[in-house]
Write a structure and sequence with these properties.
Elements lengths: L3 H13 L2 H7 L4 H15 L4 E4 L2 E4 L1 H28 L6 E6 H6 L1 H11 L5 E6 L1 H9 L5 E4 L8 E15 L12 E2 H5 L4 E3 L4 H10 L10 E3 L2 H9 L5 E4 H9 L4 E3 L1 E2 L4 E9 L7 H10 L6 E3 L5
Parallel strand pairs: 3-4, 3-5, 7-12, 8-9
Antiparallel strand pairs: 1-2, 5-13, 6-10, 6-11, 6-13, 6-14
Organism: Tamaricihabitans halophyticus
Family: Belongs to the LysR transcriptional regulatory family.
Keywords: DNA-binding, Transcription, Transcription regulation
Length: 306
């Protein structure tokens, strides 16, 4: 993989049309910039920049690499922001807790946008399952939480921040991968699955929607991370039900196969929660504004089902 600094330099050349101007922007000499670009070209085995008396511009191959590089730089920025929030001291900061799926797939982009809009706002992040997140908010351990489950304990107000779909996934060699018809809800309920631990929003949602279709089979395994579940399914342990956010890349790469289900709605609401009666103020309003922009907000008093 190229170093991020080399990819950033390539993007600067594309934007400025000059290797010298790009070098100046990055605080390095033009010979150092040229050396960095040549190293990048040797690494990828392609000519990326054409130089002329009028400046520098990207080759067709360089333009494609630059487009990919933008995604890498954005992902690195999200990683940096997310890690900083995880390790941040909690004094004088907005304290946030998020369920694992939301923390992995949504929170990083929210934090990047928050930093862009309000660089003065500092956030610390705790990651837990949905039941634990709700309790952290009720206990005053965090200022706001993000959860996946259909029910919440009394004492919390909630706002919808997204809609997610649970997907049944199996390994390519599993018999369900070759089915021509959807799996029935009753069959799914009676099949031993690779599950998240009790208290997980994914696990709770599945138990709620399948409860009307018979007694649920005992789990094959109970694992506390999405990555562990995907690895177990890919290795042939059995089916699992996971967020569409979590399995999108695995389905596209054919590491896992999605199995349609009939007779049950596997959509669920993702929500932001805070203590009832406490109106968000100051920096917390900034957090809510950034997150709420991703979905038309619907506020509710909890204890109710979604």
């Amino acid at each position: 993989m190229p170093e991020l600094s080399a990819l950033e330099l390539l993007l600067s050349v594309a934007r400025l049309g000059s290797l010298g101007q790009a070098a100046k922007e990055h605080g390095i000499s033009q010979p150092a910039a040229g050396s960095r670009i040549r190293y990048l070209e040797r690494l990828v085995g392609l000519s990326l920049i054409e130089r002329s008396p009028r400046g520098s511009h990207l080759t067709p191959e360089g333009a494609v690499v630059a487009d990919w590089a933008r995604d890498v730089i954005r992902a690195a920025s999200a990683l940096d922001t997310g890690v900083a929030a995880l390790r941040a001291e909690r004094n004088s900061r907005i304290r946030v807790a998020a369920s694992m799926t939301i923390a992995e797939y949504l929170v990083p982009s929210w934090l990047v946008e928050l930093r862009r809009r309000h660089p003065q706002v500092a956030v610390s992040l705790q990651v837990a399952n949905s039941a634990q997140v709700a309790q952290l908010v009720l206990d005053g351990e965090v200022d706001v939480g993000f959860v996946e489950g259909p029910n919440l304990p009394d004492g919390l107000s909630a706002r919808t921040v997204g809609i997610d779909e649970l997907r049944v996934v199996v390994a390519p060699g599993h018999p369900w991968a070759r089915r021509r018809r959807p799996v029935s809800a009753a069959t799914l309920a009676n099949t031993s699955l690779v599950h998240r631990e009790p208290g997980s929003g994914t696990r709770y949602t599945l138990e709620e929607v399948l409860g009307a279709h018979g007694e649920l089979a005992a789990p094959l395994f109970e694992l506390s991370s999405t990555a562990a579940i995907k690895s177990a399914v890919e290795a042939g342990a059995g089916p699992a039900v996971l967020s569409s956010l979590a399995v999108a890349e695995d389905l596209a790469a054919h590491r896992l196969v999605g199995v349609p289900v009939e007779g049950v709605d596997l959509h669920r609401t993702l929500r932001m929660v805070w203590p009832t009666g406490r109106q968000p103020t100051g920096a917390l309003r900034d957090v809510i504004a950034v997150v709420g922009a991703s979905e038309a907000p619907t506020t509710e008093t909890t204890g109710s089902k979604v």
